[in-house]
Amino acid sequence: MRKRPEPMQVVKERRDRALATLVAGVPYIQFLNITFDRRGDELTSVLNFDEQIIGNPMLPAIHGGVTAAFLETTAIIQLGWQELWHEIEGGDASALEALPSLPKTIDFTVDYLRSGLPRDAYARAQVNRSGRRYASVHVEAWQDNRSRLFAQATGHFLMPSDAELAE
Amino acid sequence: MSADLRAKVARQFIEAIPHAKALGMAFVEIGDGLAELAMPYDERLIGDPATGVVHGGAISTLMDTCSGAAVMAHPANPGSTATLDLRIDYMRSAAPGQALVARAECYHVTRTVAFVRAVAMDDDRDNPVATATGAFTIEPAKAKA
């Protein structure tokens, strides 16, 4: 007979705790006030607007550097989350105890499509290729309409096991 | 506009940016199409808590701001500028506890676009932390009322 599924709260609590552990360890994510919405394994990152992230006070518009940082953070957390997901859903509860190490950025190219308006922004990352050593990730960011991107980016990352060997 | 006045305008343009203030950025040098901008080490900018290394995003922000300043300081005299595209290569981790300095050069401008390259360094100046290349818009200077 098929095993009875776990109670919903047990599943949610485990996944939310894993995500919180991944994100809470990085001071810069708190500094920019980036938070993450989770639906199953899908993540949407939120850049919560604050006057401090303005880069052009005349328009006003979000700083291009903050947009780059937001997209890069979205890519890194997406990669870290995918690794962690396999571990926790594979029944390895110990994965939650140690702080997971995150991939390192090799290069990152940001395409600025329109200026970032003074309000919250959202982003999702798509991992196009994730090998043992390298990963290639595409990120899209929007504000009002999902189909009207204000920025997109592509980057390459060194995966943690190999990043440690390179030290 | 004289080179001195242009440098002053570029300096004011950057110093009025709320996010540049939040990161404690300060000019080291600014001149014809050139800018050097420093950012102190700050624990809030840490990307890897195990080592205290600054997050790449903060380095991108420093290089983007410095590149914008180099565009504003160019003799072509743009009224304003915005980033169209920026590519960053991360060569190594920045040494924890050390300030970062970015140096940007706006090496070519057309009527509509400025091309910039930038480098970010910690105390070991011969061994860059990151480099960047970017394309920036040239917004025409508005006529003074």
Task: Walk me through the structure.
The complex is a heterodimer of chains A (167) and B (145). By secondary structure, chain A is of the alpha+beta class. Chain A contains four helices and eight strands, in the order ααββββαββββα. Chain A has a single domain (8-165), classed as Thiol Ester Dehydrase, Chain A (Roll), CATH 3.10.129.10. In chain A, the strands form two sheets. Chain A has a six-stranded antiparallel sheet with strand order 1-2-6-7-8-5. In chain A, strands 3-4 form a two-stranded antiparallel sheet. The longest helix of chain A is centred in the middle third of the chain and has 26 residues, at 64-89. In chain B, the strands form two sheets. In chain B, strands 1-2-6-7-8-5 form a six-stranded antiparallel sheet, covered by helices on one side. In chain B, α1 (3-15) runs antiparallel to α3. The longest helix of chain B is centred in the middle third of the chain and has 17 residues, at 56-72. The A-B interface holds A 25-28, 30-32, 51-58, 61, 63-66, 68-70, 72-73, 99, 101-102, 104-112, 115 and B 16-20, 22, 43-50, 54-58, 60-65, 68, 80, 82-90, 93.
What's the short story on this structure?
The complex is a heterodimer of chains A (167) and B (145). With 167 residues, chain A is α+β, with helices and mostly antiparallel strands.
Question: Keyphrases for this structure?
Answer:
heterodimer; A: 167 residues; Thiol Ester Dehydrase, Chain A; two-stranded antiparallel sheet; 4 helices; 8 strands; globular; B: 145 residues; alpha+beta; six-stranded antiparallel sheet
